[in-house]
Design a protein that fits this description.
single chain
Length: 435
């Protein structure tokens, strides 16, 4: 047991430092960890079988469809309309463009289900606009990077589907509904920081829109925003499952992007389909190798060992949740969200439930925690995309990111220790009964 676990950790860490793609690093580390117990060929077959079993799930069918829907929305002129909508709502406030950035990233992230897509689509427009209005360019990038992660909590969200798979007990519908309030809480906390920052630096105040302009921009945004209500309303109303909702999302996105907004040409569809296949392949490889590593850890009784160790360290739920959060914050710095959820859910969820913590509450807490890792080096995908768009270095973002990090951590603590922030809406709509 000890040799296998040591091999697993050493090989995984070495491969990460060598900049090997994380899915490959996880798969190779799992294979090497099995070699002391069995020969190479049986070990290879075992890893392959576990990878195949990991992606052999009907619920995971929703992921490629939501990816395709997000790509269609990203190309379909949705970002511009959401930005214009956000402008007429908050553009006239002190630091209004920062608020516009946060709201646009939140809405687009929710519609597309991708923080990277939100950073690219919204940041590509908002960062240059804020630069022209005299906002600090480092601050502009930091706002875009942190606010893009809120869409991963607001459905449709692929990472919530992954947690449902990893937990084996929490429904996707409950997770989708539960993510709204925590996601909005994070967005609100970021807006508070931006408000203080804007007042301190005397950033310009936008003009108040006319009634006609407000009406026009709001109506233009309604078709885009309707996707959120279509998906969640259908799931909560029992009209279709989450997987069926993903197909409806694709059809609606196609209709909106090609025939209503006319931003996507028929000739562009093959390119979008190929891109969705590439993204799906990456996600599924991550899920497969992460499932194999999770099985390896379970085979060596690592979850039970860690659970017992944590329970002996403290029987106080407050302290246990704090320890889990600190560990996950560290994990998020070095590991992508998908493998982190698949590997660490079987380890920490039993500890949480043993202390009377609801699995749904734990799931949203975990996802919110790992969202912070997307904004931190060396693995933070959103951080690198944001720096690329803004054409700045990571070092220059440290100072403006710190208060925004703190705002996200405060939101995390509120979600962690006030379960009703997560559980209120699922209970209200009758899609979940707390355990």
């Amino acid at each position: 047991m000890e040799i296998s676990v040591i091999l697993l950790l050493v090989v995984f860490v070495v491969l990460l430092f060598l900049n090997v793609p994380i899915a490959i690093a996880i798969g190779v580390a799992t294979l090497v960890a099995l070699l002391p117990s069995i020969d190479f060929l049986p070990a290879t077959m075992t890893v392959a079988q576990r990878m195949g079993g990991g992606i052999n799930s009907f619920a995971l069918l929703a992921i490629p469809f939501f990816i395709l829907s997000g790509l269609l929305m990203g190309r379909g002129g949705i970002a511009y309309r959401l930005i214009e909508f956000a402008k007429v709502i908050v553009g006239m406030l002190p630091g209004g463009l920062a608020f516009v950035n946060i709201i646009s990233c939140t809405l687009f992230g929710a519609i597309s289900g991708s923080a990277v897509a939100a950073t690219s689509a919204i940041g590509g427009f908002m960062i240059p606009t804020m630069n022209k209005e005299g906002y600090d360019k480092n601050f502009n990038a930091a706002v875009t990077i942190t606010s893009s992660t809120t869409g991963l909590l607001i459905p449709p969200s692929n990472i919530l589907i992954v947690f449902s798979l990893a937990s084996g007990s929490v429904s996707i519908a409950a997770l989708f509904v539960a993510g709204y309030l925590p996601g909005l809480l994070v967005a609100l906390s970021l807006m508070v920081v931006c408000s203080v920052y804007a007042i301190k630096h005397g950033y310009p105040v936008g003009r108040v829109p006319s009634a006609l302009e407000f009406t026009k921009k709001s109506i233009d945004a309604v078709p885009s925003l309707f996707l959120i209500f279509l998906v969640i309303g259908g799931i909560v109303g029992g009209w279709f499952t989450a997987t069926e909702a993903s197909v409806i999302a694709v059809l609606y996105s196609l209709l909106l992007s090609v025939f209503v907004y006319k931003e996507v040409k028929i000739s562009q569809l093959p390119e979008i389909l190929v891109k969705s296949v590439e993204t799906t392949a990456i996600v599924m490889l991550l899920i497969g190798t992460s499932t194999a590593m999770s099985w390896m850890l379970s085979y060596e009784n690592i979850p039970q060992t860690i659970s017992s160790l944590m329970m002996t360290m403290s029987d106080n739920p407050f302290m246990l949740l704090l320890m889990i959060n600190v560990i996950l914050l560290c994990v998020g710095i070095f590991m992508d969200m998908t493998p982190a959820v698949l590997i660490f859910t079987p380890i920490f969820l039993p500890v949480a439930t043993a202390m009377g913590i609801d699995p749904l509450h734990f799931g949203i807490m975990m996802v919110l925690n790992l969202c912070i890792g997307l904004c931190t080096p060396p693995v933070g995908a959103v951080l690198f995309v944001g720096c690329g768009i803004a054409k700045i270095s990571i070092a220059s973002l440290v100072k403006p990111l710190i208060p925004l990090y703190l705002a996200m951590i405060v939101s995390l603590m509120l979600v962690t220790y006030i379960p009703q922030i997560t559980l209120f809406l699922p209970e209200f709509f009758g899609v979940y009964t707390p355990k």
